[in-house]
Every structure is written in C-alpha cells, then in structure tokens.
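Section handout 9: paired folding examples.
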Amino acid sequence: MAQRTTDTMRWTAADLDLLPDDGSRYEIVAGELLVSRAPHWGHQKACVRLCAALDAWSTATELGEASIAPGVLFGESDNVIPDVVWVSRGRLEVILDAAGHLTAAPELVVEVLSPGADNERRDRDLKLRLYSARGVREYWLVDWRAQQVEVYRREQASLALAATLLAGDTLTSPLLPGFAYPVAGIFA
C-alpha cells in the first residue's frame, strides 16, 4: 500500500519519468513521492461500481464523463491518480491535454481508502488539502471496510465535510442533477 519515502528531497513531474514501470502507482503531492501497490479487490470493486454508476448517469444526461484512475497533473510538484473522477463536458475540453491527462481539477474526485495509517493520511489529509487548494468542487472519500462514504463539498474556498453516508443512505450531489446511487450498492 502507499508509503512515504524516507528521502527529504522534493520530487517533481520530471522525476516520475525516471521511475521504473513496475506496476506501482507513483504520485506526488507537495513534492512528496507516494508509492502504492495494487489495491485490494474490495477497493477496486468500489471504484468500478461508482464509476459505472457515474458513467451510466453521464451517458443518459450527456453532462460529463467519468473515468477510473486518470492522471491529474496539477503542476511540477502535484501529480496524482485519483481512483475515480467526474468532469463536465465543457470543463473536460479545457483541461484534457494532448497526452490524455487532466491539467486542472475535475469537478468531482473519488478516493477509496486502502488499509494502513499512511494510506489514510494520504487521502484524508494530503489529498484533501490538495484537492481543496486546486478547486475540486466535491470529494467523496469511500471506506469499503466500514461501508461508508464521506462527502466533502466546496464551501467558500475549501472542501468541508458535508455528510457521512452509511449503507442505508443514498449518494446524491448538487453537481449531478438526478444522480442517486444507494451506498450499499457500492459495497454489494
């Protein structure tokens, strides 16, 4: 699972090109290198189910697109691979570069927690602050072990916890008119 490097150096986007193509996921947040191994089956199922629901809604409404694990290149020291994103059609045209990476914040970012203190710190602290600073409008933090979803929404200039949804609740969003998905369906 994700681990902090013990180096004190500041990593950049150029450094990512020098890392091995070994199946690990390499991300940089505030110059800190984060390395993740292949996630648990439950983690991946939650990603697939949420992306499928967002994709079906997007296809029906033609309002945007959902994707699993896209590269988001915010700058030289902030390059991440969120588990799932949703981007409106108009915004996608502006922020998608020729290499197929997002170069600015998608409206919605979903991260599914992996076990371990470093992983929790990465998603609850580092990435929450990054997404907040970069203009993400909504952040869903999914805990497949506890079967709950924390919904953070932009209030003024930052993301704030708006709701903690449990298995009996339904996931909705003002960003996604008419979207409704049972939280239990994420974990079924």
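Moving on to protein 2 of 2.
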Amino acid sequence: MGQEPISIWVTGAMAISFALVHIGIGQLRFLDKTPRSRWLSFAGGVAVAYVFLHILPELAAHGATFSRAIGLDESMAESAVYSLALIGLVLFYGTEQLLSASKSKQEAKGAKKRAGTGEFWIHIASSALLIAIIAYLLNHREDYGAISLAVYFVAMILHFTTADYGTRSDHPELYDDYGRWVLAAATLGGWLVGELVELPQIAIGGLFAFVGGGIVLVVLKEELPEERQSAFIPFFGGAVLYAALVIGETAL
C-alpha cells in the first residue's frame, strides 16, 4: 500500500454525502420520467464500469491474500474470492425476486402493484448491509491513494442514486417515512466502524467481492426490465467515460 490513509474529515464528508443521497432521493424530481431518466442510465453505466475495471481486478490481488491466509493454491484462492462475488449477486437476486413476487400478489388482489411491507423491509435490510460495507470500504481499500478514493466515491454515489430511486419506487411512503433513515444510519454506521475497526486483508478482500456482486445485480436489475424503458446511449456513455477515467488512473 505505502500511502498514508486519507483524512477522517474527507472520508467522513463522503459518508455524509452518501447519506444525503439516501435521504434526499425523493426530492430529485427530474428523475421521475418515462422513458427512464437518462441520468439514471448514465449512473448505471458508471457503476458497472467501476465494478469491472476497478473492483474485479483488485480481487486478483486479494486472491493472493487468500492464498497466503488459508493455504490454498492461487487458482483455488481466486475461485474463493469470486465465489463471494457470486454470493453477493445471488443474495440480492433473491431479495429482488421476493419483491417481484410480492408485487404480483398485491396486483392480483386488486391493490397497487407494490411490495408488501414485510418484503420491503427485507429489501431495506439487505440494502443496508451492502451500504454499510461500501461505507466501511471508504477507509479500507487495496489502494489508499486520493485518486482511487475519488474514483470509488463518484462510482458509489452514482450507484446509490440508481439503487435508491428503484428502492423508493417500490414503496414511496415507507421509504420516505422510515427506509431512507435506515439507509442513512447504515452508511454512517459503516463509516464509523471503518474508523474504529481494521479487519484483516482477507476479510476486506471478501467484502470487496461481495460488494461487486451486489452492485452488478442491482444495476442490471434497474436497467434491463422492459418497463424501465432505459436509455442505452447514456448507459454506454457512462460506462465508456468512466472506463477511460479508471484506465487513466491506472496509467498514472
């Protein structure tokens, strides 16, 4: 690593910014469009580019950590790391399927096509877990540099915009009254734990893998369904522009 950790004030400000997105997503009226807002599609492209060009390549380095820590050969260690990414994807796929089934059940009863209260809270709980890990990683990443942190911050704040917009649309009243505060608390709590507790590198590698799988599922869930009427060009543009930024960071 070889670099001094970033100031607590910088990462704290970033955590507060994340929390403000959770709290204020309902006020961003320009996102409420059909077809889907181009800004949301752009944000989705950025998040996917970050996962594939930044998080996933770092997993190879964490694979070496796994190899040393648990005595596996290199290929098995990498498989273990990527399995954790798969677990993240499967977990969030399961919660999304639960929400979808709940919406269909409510619609069949003649009610609004919204998730039931219990299913909505399960979704909030899983989102809070992912959010807390992302906030924790503000303080603990493979690369402690300022540019790397800035890249991480931009990608995650755009990811939260996409994810929170989708979560709020499932149950606006519950999200505005309670859900957003839970997510904001998870953000600040994850950041605080990151300031107080430094996990072993093998655990940080596992968290990175889990986050990568979860983000891929959440972003594609928001972009792929036909009813979203998503915009490909902004999604593509976000992915390409952010890929160029990450490659530029690597070159420097």
